[in-house]
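Running log. JK asked me to keep both predictions on one page so they can be read side by side. First protein, sequence followed by its tokens:
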Amino acid sequence: MFVIINSIPLDPLAFGAIQPDQVVIVANENDLDGMDVARYYAKQRGIPLSNLVRLNLPYEETISREDFEEYLTKPLKVALESRGLASTTRVLVTTFGVPLRVNAPLPNDEVHEWQADATEWYDAAIEFAHTIDTALSRTLLNFQKGAPPSPSLSSAFSASNPVKAEQILRHIDHAIATITSEIQTPSSPKKPMDQHLDFFKYLLQLDGLSAYTKYPNFKMPTHSQLTPDQLKTHIQLARLALSILVHTPSTQNRKVSYQLAQRFFGIRGVFQLAASEQQNLVTKDTEASVDSELSILWFGQDQYSLNGRIPNPFYAWYPSNTKSTKKDKDFQFPVLMVSRIDAPTPKLSKLMIDRAIMAEQTGVSGKAYFDARGMKSDGPLSYGDYDQSLRNLSAFMRNQTSYRVILENTQKRFQEKGEAPQVGLYAGWYQYREYEDAFSFNPGAIGYHIASGEAISIHNPQEKGWCKNALERGITVTIGPTGEPYVDAFPKPSEFFGLMLTGRYTLVEAYYLSTRHLSWRMVLFGDPLYNPWKGQALAALPDLQKYIPEFKALRALPPSPSDHLFPHPIQLAQKRRSQQDALLSQIPALLNTNP
């Protein structure tokens, strides 16, 4: 039975439906069962077999970073390019047998040397900044004769209480502002010019050549062969060159990076470069889900760091997206949407497909369960904020649909066997990697558990996490992380389900419109083309805005990600390489810049 109330008719042109030929299926040719699942999905959704890419992958859930690049991303790019699919593919589907997690890269001796060298640069910059701080304090005392002395920040710290870069820079900037005010005060006694010259010398040491553009009273020498505009251009070129060199580290590139940083941005630039290297060269947050990494298949090496996560440009609630309803947003690089058809067995993987298609024909029946904890919202993206999202979604579902809604709004969970039968929709907290067998799922059911590590394994029989066990018990769609994601990595339930209920978006589009990060640890399990409410929407924007505050920020429902125009990734990569080579060739001339 199709459960619906107040059906909202939609213009067919409003749908940005993904076409079968825009979907590429990724399969492990070493896994016969996985190949069978991949072919079955292609047949059921009418995806051309030429869009099925077979890769020589290990038969493990975890793949090393080195193997991920050698055996997955490189041959996948080659296959997409050689088959003419590079510019048309919008969705990748990973299937049973394709690794789930990618490990952090193994640091080698050279990387360890770079880490130590970055620390030496940072410490040397601290020491030099102490010298500038002390000198500026003396200069300020000379300018303010008779005033109480202004001690340097350095004097307040010791080896047991070390100063941090940001602290000493703030102290130096305060001294600079005070001295500048003294210089500009007409009523103050005339200061010796050598004091002015010493002050300007410190500015040049602190900020490099950018000091000439940063401080209005710091004039370029009269004999300069550069105009102020030419110097600004050189500074911008140096900044761009640094962004390339930092993301493509080598011993030579690092040497040139520090030369550029010191020349154009002074001690402040060395601080920033060393701190950036200290962050980018560590491997603490470099492990990820395979699927999230595949979203940035076409990104250049200089566009992101393996360490940490990057913003998802599709996310509908980023400020730049809430102000525009344009579907032809200018994307600088193509983002692929990725979904996984994978379950504990090949049979269950096929049933994920069958149940999605069945629900599109008959509707998602059953009840809507929301497991909140009674927490008050205590700031954006906090636990309380997510808890409120569950209550807001519950109120919307109760008032705008005919689903029976069960909201648990205490610390108690749905945990007793049979306590939550006939699930159509579910979202809630929180039992960490300890599936509680309270649920039975109707065909087409969509649900996820906001907890860490719920997708660490799908195939390990001993795995107790949510995703493996919910898939085993028949859920059609779920979401989970392969490690610690932090709460804001989960789509807010009110945003994700709100978009799904409009009927305008396929599963993978609603997910990418409501997830904030790429190159991270989240996985979407389900048929990416699944859209059970297409043409029979349960939600319109005014209704969503009435119950769900996040939707008030949207001027209109966001355009479908599949509608965006993207640059051809191969042509874009070639253009970027050409531009970067041209820029890097200017480095010798930049290093010889003299104002």
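And the second, directly underneath as requested:
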Amino acid sequence: MEDNTEIENLFSYTIKGQIREVLEVYEKNHLALEAKITRLEDTVLHIAVYVGQTNFVATLLDNISEEVCFAILKLQNSKGNTPLHLAAELGNVEICYNLAKRDPTLISWRNFQGETPLFLAAIHGKKDAFFCLYRHQESQDDYSLCSKNNGDTILHCTISSEYFGLALKILDLYPNLADSVNQDGLSPLHILAMKPNCFKSSTRMESLDRFVYNCLIVDDVSEEAVELHKNQKDKQKTKYPMNYSTCVSFVSLFMRAAKAITFGKHTSKAEAADEENLSRKSYLGYEKEMAKKETKYNRFPPNCETIIRILIVTTKALLLICGVGSSWIDKIQRRKARHMQAKKVMNELIQRATLYKYSGRTPHGKGKTIIGMQNGTHLERRTDSPILIAAKMGITEMVEKILDIFPVAIQDVDSENKNVVLLAIENRQPHVYNMLNKSDIAKESAFRQVDSQGNSALHLAATYKSHKPWRVPGAAMQMQWEYKWYKLVKNSMPPNFYERYNNKGQTAKQVFVSTHGQLVKEGGKWLTKTAESCSVVAALVATVAFTTSTAIPGGPDQNTGVPLLRGRPAFNLFAVAALIALCSSVTSLVLFLSVLTSRFQEKDFAVDLPRKLLLGLTTLFTSIASVLISFCAGHYFIIEDELKYAVFPIYAATCLPVSFFALVQLPLYFDLALAMFRKVPQRSYKALPHYLPGHLH
């Protein structure tokens, strides 16, 4: 195959699926199918698999000699991938079936990364291809096909890629993989502990999202069923314009509501037959039928399920009418389904784990793995146990479940002698902390633990690091939450820990002052600038309010001095608004001046300064609104009767700048208000601690 023209022709024929022309070239030269015709050293069969030429592959293999067939099936490209590797990676089930049926030994072939076709199908989430290869492998108990050179198994990779439905099936097929450890000392539970966004406790949601999340009921169906239905919908071409999607969604919801009222949760015969046909077409060899739907409705009486479904559909319809759209709800529903599946995988892994069971060797929970020699001594990699990683990441569900199954896990420590309590406090994880604070196991000893530097839980609560852990803007409010976090931890500690010294001879209070010094300066600058800006506005409003309050619309009676317009509704509104504007503007000015003259001590950021700023903003908004109202009420008397109703839109337009200013400041206002009433800080999961798999000792 030294002729470049012949190679180019083979490439072109294969891409276009011209099997007759390829077979003609093969008849002239039986080595043509073994030629490397791309830079990646792909053969004709490789390229056909790449482009998904299913019929091309089957026809080609049926029309060549058996000897050539076996030869080209085992050819590897520059990455060591055989055609079966590529078919498994792409999830082409028919090609996988065709190739594995002809030579089952191909399933055990490894590429240059040590990956088998079975491994590639799993890590790319190609469920049908995975089960097809699983069924055709020579030994279904061969665990060697499930791992690569670095020790990562298909369970590690499916969890890392968040294919939780497939991970559950793998646990059923290969139960011993639950305790597998890669060269970094990480088990599948370690990998799951590094996925905080897959759990509800570590997922940030706004109030409305959280409300919808709690209201949604997700059917506990098998992932295969969901995927098959999804694929079937994707294949159906839409018969309506894209801008009609909202109308179509509304009609769909209406039909679902009618179905819920008429049939409840029972599926129609057509749907049942559809599911049966789909399951027959799939290559899930070990499954005879799709998993039955196990819903959460069993906690309610049977007649309540229909009502709940109707309420859900009605809520979606109302949101569609309001312009929110069903995609937002579907996104939250997918998130909840992912959380449920991740929790199932977690429960299975913990139930099957032998982390804390004596087996005559170092437990995986301690994470010690010999990785080499240097100067005659062992190099040892130490990996934190899953409960320690979960505490860092804020996965309350995992910490609680591990302690429930293995109470001895409370004794786990990392390389710095920090246990689960110390790590949760150090990484500002309020949910984990509250759960441990209520646990009798943790209360007895874990809260009294000190690390290798002599730091207690209070020392770590007092230590401020570079990242911003709290869900609030600005250094001042970060400082407020830091002080509240310190006080919260302090109240849970024994009194004798208040004055405890670490190895540097520092108490927790001294650590707090020294590590928060820069944050205090930044917070003080922010408060000063904010107070200065707002005090200028308050002074201007106070000046206008004073001038307005002394002016009398229409003037006084020359004999009695009584206002001529007294008793009219507009005049009363003017008088009250002017008084409120003057009082509130002066109050806000005094509050902002008190912020400017503050000493900016650490404890001042907890309540005193935020309260003054909150009250100052409240009175400032009130004074501005009152000034505008008093102006409009006074101006109303000088407008002719014919124009009085025409000026109302102008009055409304006059209030727009103030309304815009108030809307811009609302997020800060709400953050200040919530901080005043919330005792436990709320963690921001945008700044999760970075976890390294291990480090050398």
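Observation for JK regarding the second prediction: The mean pLDDT is 77.
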